[in-house]
């Protein structure tokens, strides 16, 4: 992925986990409470967690819930019905690679990621649910076991701030640009770490080497999966800014481009749109909903939109 260099997110600078959480509780969570009136099931549940019963397939049932073993024995398609647990465990599988630093100085993709994770983690832990996380950058940086409570949200936020500040979680400088992102590493870590059926949030810009589709499919079969793609409008449409040096944020390679050339800007936009179409087609093929959040979008509105789409999917 080639983009214009960007500044680190100010969310990760000169602030603390406590300040971030207080800001989100006042500006985002309070508004969500008013909109949802405390009922967040449409956001965290899609098909449920535990199997309640089997029944014959009906029109408009999700084919992913067909129990093929029972179907073979009965010579008629049967689907699994689920019941929602009172308490759930949620995991955040987080892409913290260099391409996530792109965006406005105070609204980069990684800044949105931190706010999004802290918001959902707080909504979950308030009701006694447990949250954990797997942090990925070139390799698995850290696995944070699931726990409940406000302190767990602060821990997640603290580790994210550290991971996005230019240092790894052991205090050493982060790796320089090198090999491209391989999301399969993050997804396979989720397969290995999360044993009990859980709600999984996979948050990334999905700029990755091929091969992530298989572990993503496996995760969707085992867990309640919510895929979130963070993006910035400048990744799709270049401004007319003359001669610019751009950087491949994955490998660190630099080159000059003439953004005043309409043909170049058109080819850039077409390539970005084609990449987006391919991504959407792939996740659709796997039967997974992909929720896109822009760096210019209000976080409250993005979460409400996601909940609305998931509620519609359940009908």
Using the 3D structure, state the CATH architecture of the largest domain: 3-Layer(aba) Sandwich
CATH class identity of the largest domain: Alpha Beta
Helix content bin: 25-40%
Assigned CATH superfamily of the largest domain? von Willebrand factor, type A domain
Count of extended strands: 11
- H and E order: EHHEHEEHEEHHEHEEEHEH
Radius of gyration: 20 Å
Q: What spatial order of strands do you see in the largest sheet?
A: 6-5-4-7-8-11
Mean pLDDT: 83
Largest sheet: 6 strands, mixed
Q: What is the first-to-last residue Cα distance?
A: 38 Å
Morphology: globular
Structural class: alpha/beta
CATH fold node name of the largest domain: Rossmann fold
How many domains comprise the coordinates? 2
Low-confidence sequence ranges:
4-14, 167-172
Strand percentage lies at 15-25%
Number of helices: 9
Question: How is the topology of this model organized?
Answer:
Layout: E1 2-3, H1 17-36, H2 41-44, E2 50-56, H3 68-74, E3 78-83, E4 89-95, H4 109-126, E5 130-137, E6 139-147, H5 150-163, H6 183-193, E7 199-204, H7 213-222, E8 224-231, E9 243-248, E10 254-258, H8 262-285, E11 290-294, H9 299-314
Parallel strand pairs: 4-5, 4-7, 7-8, 8-11
Antiparallel strand pairs: 1-9, 2-3, 5-6, 9-10
Helix pairs in contact: 1-4, 1-5, 1-9, 4-5, 6-7
